[in-house]
Amino acid sequence: MVAVMHSHPQHRDVQNTRPGRPRSAAADRAILAATRTALVELGWSKLTMSDVATRAGVAKTTLYRRWAGKSELVVDAVAVLFDELELPDLGSLPADLEAMVLRLAALLDRPETRTSMMAVVAEATRDEALRRRIRSAIVDRQKVLVLEGRARAQERGELPYEKDPETAAHDADLIFDVIAGAVVHRTLVSAEPVDPAWAHRFTRLLIGGLASLTQRDPHQAP
Amino acid sequence: MVAVMHSHPQHRDVQNTRPGRPRSAAADRAILAATRTALVELGWSKLTMSDVATRAGVAKTTLYRRWAGKSELVVDAVAVLFDELELPDLGSLPADLEAMVLRLAALLDRPETRTSMMAVVAEATRDEALRRRIRSAIVDRQKVLVLEGRARAQERGELPYEKDPETAAHDADLIFDVIAGAVVHRTLVSAEPVDPAWAHRFTRLLIGGLASLTQRDPHQAP
Amino acid sequence: MVAVMHSHPQHRDVQNTRPGRPRSAAADRAILAATRTALVELGWSKLTMSDVATRAGVAKTTLYRRWAGKSELVVDAVAVLFDELELPDLGSLPADLEAMVLRLAALLDRPETRTSMMAVVAEATRDEALRRRIRSAIVDRQKVLVLEGRARAQERGELPYEKDPETAAHDADLIFDVIAGAVVHRTLVSAEPVDPAWAHRFTRLLIGGLASLTQRDPHQAP
Amino acid sequence: MVAVMHSHPQHRDVQNTRPGRPRSAAADRAILAATRTALVELGWSKLTMSDVATRAGVAKTTLYRRWAGKSELVVDAVAVLFDELELPDLGSLPADLEAMVLRLAALLDRPETRTSMMAVVAEATRDEALRRRIRSAIVDRQKVLVLEGRARAQERGELPYEKDPETAAHDADLIFDVIAGAVVHRTLVSAEPVDPAWAHRFTRLLIGGLASLTQRDPHQAP
DNA sequence: CCCTAAACGAGACGGTACGTCCAGTCTTCAC
DNA sequence: GTGAAGACTGGACGTACCGTCTCGTTTAGGG
Predict the structure, then answer these.
(1) B104 contact A CB<8A
(2) In whole angstroms, what is the distance from residue D49 CA to residue D147 CA?
(3) Under a CB-based contact definition with an 8 Å cutoff, are residues D72 and D130 in contact?
């Protein structure tokens, strides 16, 4: 993950020829790790910049030199967790989907993820820049998995190739929102576990719906 | 909406004979209204108790006498908005579902709702009491709509009567998480509009999936 | 001591025929006692009306019905302590004076007195009504002792009779300020004990000065 | 005036090499000046830390970083006023003493002094640290004047040299309490003016007493 | 091998909100 | 109409962080 950092010269020379003391990469790592630890212990609302600085053995100024505020810092700290999400290949679409759902649920069950996800999203409702940051750091990372999964299922012949590229894109978005939404809502709002039984029923529902989506719309004229 | 308030005797005598000056009901109304206004203007994180008190024309102490903190206050203030959610009756399950999805999306599109929902849920990840409050004030209120919708569809013959009551309950939960999750995710995370076209595709997906759910599970033995 | 109380009808009928429930004299006593106890425990600045009310088993309203505020209450509560000050009769002016000094010092050494005296006086620097209350309740009570002491010494022939009544009054004031001032300053400002040795030296100083006061002023003509 | 400040390292290195931003000396001056102004306008009990901060154009935190509370702040603010007390030299002990009394009275008559002195002393009855602060900042400053005055009178031959150094110290304390006590009591408790006539009578009393103090104690054996 | 310029730690700065406490008033019921 | 109880407005309290600032001190190239 390479987040674009606050007040960083956007594009450095290929050879970093900026004068002066370079920024400490160790500090970056220490700060992000400290942020995750603090998130688990304190939760979003009680996490403070000062506290993170202390934990990371770093001055507050160093934080502010790199991130504009708490939200930005937390997004970067959490984003790396989503790197581990990978599409499993178990040979069939339902099996892959079910495994994917369980992996996503496991990720959302980790304290640092569950605590920060909703809070960051909430902050983003009033902050377009933050929304973009979340999208590039987290959401898009998940969305490609949907596209990969569909491509693989089409190769296997489990799904037809959609002719209209626009419809294809819309459907991918729809399916992404359904999967991620259902798992997030189950985990964080309903606060009930995504166990294999639930994942199985959900997969059946989704596979069945997917099939009917590819048929001609019965509500619309022939 | 009847919120359980901070430090209130849970059930008073039928004749309220507590000594001392009774609490002002007008203050309650003013505070909740002020909270909603402030939410719209400032968003969750910049909303302060002091500001709410000032807007409501009430002393800060009066707020703290009734709510333990910002989260509790906001849950109560927002909960009332969910009262307006009602199940439409358009004659068919797909039509009803589509309308319902649009209504829910419209509600989540209102600034006070979108701003506060996620934030409150985020707070709740670390607070069991708050989680209960949200569940009773908001989540359960929506869940009954799913049950009503299913019952009506069964009366119409659009859905079969499930024999096993446990499976019935689980499926209702599943469907609730899928609907609410998809709409919430689309609205707040993907940050794209739930327009009639999206609602229509989503409804087709869900109705199709619903049908396959009621069939015998092809993955399990005959 | 019967202080004139806040909002009391100044003069009641000989037969108390006021309508309604009469005030509880027990409450008065309890309040003043509670005030003294609280003063010892908490000191002036941390003593609160609410706390006194609780200790006295009385509602806050009852306090405010009788005293206008903290200062007034404390003056009344402390004034009674000064009732015990009496002029000793040991047969000679120096002996009486020395004993008097030690008694006054002992009174000022009691926690409730030392804590409240200065505080009340401090409040009074900005409040004429309070100043009158202190004067009548405390200061004048001490000043008569000076007058009594002089009269007795004159009867004994230890002091001459001053011809000019105005000079007599001024000198009594002067001597009062010197005695009370020295003891108060030693006790509360210098914060050192008024022990018999100090009292003895002070008495010698004062008696000697008194003698020179009654002589003709060497600074003034013939 | 050198006040010992809250949480200050008592003695820094000769070269101030403490890390971090140094404290603003200008802030100190502004705060103490604002405190004196506020004292005059509002009096001790209505003076608030917030108000002082606002007047000084300084944040409340800056006050609390330097002084532990209202009492400490006021002591330092007032202490500087006592710097102006100087021993006059008019050629004779009675003249010097009379002038000194009038100067002290004039100082105690200034609103900021009269309002705060007693209140601070009252607070100090329950606070040893505050008592020490008052002593070093105010009381000792006055006591040296007594010692200076005595030394000068001895040089002039107006007073004998005391043989026993302990007796000398005790007598200085006694005289200090008598002078300061009488003036303070007259000014603040009796609330009557220290005019030249009073100062003259008081001086006569004290000079006379002083003379008798240096004689052999008639009460004690030869 | 120093020079230069930025990054660093430390911590004070002006602010804002916190949640608590108390003042003094008002409202209700019981006696 | 007094008394107890307790909710009310209002405002200061002292604390905690915020994000900025001003220091003196590293620390790495580049000359």
Answers:
(1) no
(2) 37
(3) yes
CA of A78 to C1' of F11 (A): 43
Report d(CA D101, CA D115) in Å as an integer.
Answer: 19
Task: Name the residue facing A121 among B94, B189, B201 (closest C-beta).
Answer: B189
DSSP H helices in chain B: 25-42, 49-56, 60-66, 70-79, 93-109, 111-124, 128-134, 140-156, 165-184, 196-214
What SS3 class is residue A17?
coil
Chain D residues close to C210, C-beta within 8 Å:
205, 208-209
Of D114, B89, D45, nearest to C123 by C-alpha is D45
Listed in order, strand segments (DSSP E) in C117-201 are none
Q: Give, as one character, the DSSP assignment of residue A22.
A: P
Flag residues 116-175 of B with CB < 7 Å from strand E: none
CB contact at 8 A, B71 and B123: yes
CATH topology of domain D79-214: Tetracycline Repressor; domain 2 (1.10.357)
In this complex, the residue of D198, D204, D210 whose CB is nearest that of residue C213 is D204
CATH topology match: D25-66 vs D79-214: no
pLDDT digits (tens, 9 = 90+) for B106-161: 999 998 888 888 888 888 888 888 888 888 888 998 999 999 999 999 999 999 99
Return the SS3 of D19.
coil
| Residue found under tokens 């200065």 | C118
Give the distance, in angstroms, between residue A8 CA and nucleotide F19 C1': 18
Quick count: other Cβ atoms within 10 Å of Cβ A34?
Answer: 21
pLDDT of residue B1: 41
Q: Are A204 and B198 inside 8 Å of each other by CB?
A: no
Task: Kindly report the pTM of this predicted structure.
Answer: 0.83
Tokens of A107: 């990720």
Residues of D in contact with C174 (CB under 8 A): 182, 198, 201-202, 205
CA distance A152 to chain B (A): 21
Spatial contact of C67 and C49, defined as CB atoms under 8 Å apart? no
Structure tokens at A141: 């990372």
Q: What does residue C24 show for φ and ψ, rounded to 5 degrees?
A: -85, 120
Instruction: Give the type of residue at A43.
Output: G
DSSP states along A93-105: HHHHHHHHHHHHH
On whether the CB atoms of residues C138 and C119 are closer than 8 A, the answer is no
- Name the strand (E) or helix (H) holding D132: helix D128-134
For the domain spanning D25-66, the CATH number is 1.10.10.60
Residue A107 backbone phi and psi in degrees, to 5 = -65, -45
**What chain C residue is nearest to D211 in terms of C-alpha separation?**
C208
Cα B192 to Cα C221: distance, rounded to the nearest angstrom: 106
CA–CA separation, C194 and C104 (whole Å):
10
Residues 203-222 of chain C with CB under 8 A from chain D are 204-213, 217, 219
Check residue D114 and give its pLDDT: 85
Per-residue pLDDT of D17-73, as tens digits, reads: 678 888 899 999 999 999 999 998 988 888 999 999 999 999 999 999 999 999 999
Residue whose entry in the numeric block shows the structure tokens 């995370």 = B189
Domain parsing of chain D, residue ranges: 25-66, 79-214
User: Which residues have C-beta within 8 Å of that of residue A46, sequence separation ≥ 6?
Assistant: none
Token pair for residue B160?
């079969």
